[in-house]
Design goal:
41% of the residues lie in helices and 11% in strands. The protein has 180 residues and is of the alpha/beta class. The strands form two sheets. The chain has a three-stranded parallel β-sheet, covered by helices on one side.
Length: 180
């Protein structure tokens, strides 16, 4: 209520289904991670217009680091699978999905790996790219300034060798960047 009175957006860092729903009922604008979002949570997100910002790259990072931290690799694998399922559930319900990452456990500058995981979770390559551009801009309230290549918008354009709509992994090897 306070954030709404100040015209501010609220995001919720939540993983458990009950906490996700609690945040959505309180009126948050987005759920970050949402690792165990269930169908009820996805329906509630759709109803409230919330955006979902998963962090799928953490799954493989946890799986590879599990033994280093004395964790059961099967638990890390189950967590990674649950995160993919949460994105599938949200996508099935038509929840806008934006690309984002805490990037603490993963490497900074490797955000494109999140696109691969989004495709693995069932988004089309085009929808994965939209998650990083159009939906990301909307999530930040900057859709009139960035997020698409249009007149009077600031645009950063990349070039890759290949078609990311045919193979999203070509976005891991950027050959050229045009800033602004």
């Amino acid at each position: 209520e306070t954030a709404a009175a100040m015209d501010r957006k609220v995001t919720c860092h939540a993983m458990a289904p009950d906490k996700i729903k609690q945040c959505l009922r309180a009126g948050v604008h987005s759920i970050e991670h949402g690792s165990y979002m269930d169908d009820e949570g996805a329906r509630l997100a759709k109803k409230t217009g919330a955006i979902f910002v998963p962090t799928l790259v953490i799954g493989p990072v946890m799986k590879s680091a599990a033994s280093n931290f004395g964790l059961d690799p099967s638990a890390a694998d189950a967590f990674s699978t649950a995160m993919l399922e949460a994105v599938r559930t949200a996508n099935k319900r038509g929840i806008p999905i934006a690309l984002g990452s805490d990037s603490g456990p993963s490497q900074h500058g490797e955000n494109a790996k999140e696109l691969l995981r989004l495709v693995e979770a069932g988004l089309s390559p085009a929808d994965a790219i939209r998650s990083a551009t159009l939906i990301g801009a909307h999530h930040l309230g900057l859709e009139t300034e960035i997020g698409s290549i249009e007149t009077n918008k600031s645009a950063d354009i990349i070039a890759v060798d290949g078609d990311p709509l045919a193979d999203i992994s070509v976005l891991l090897d950027v050959d050229f960047v045009m800033k602004g």
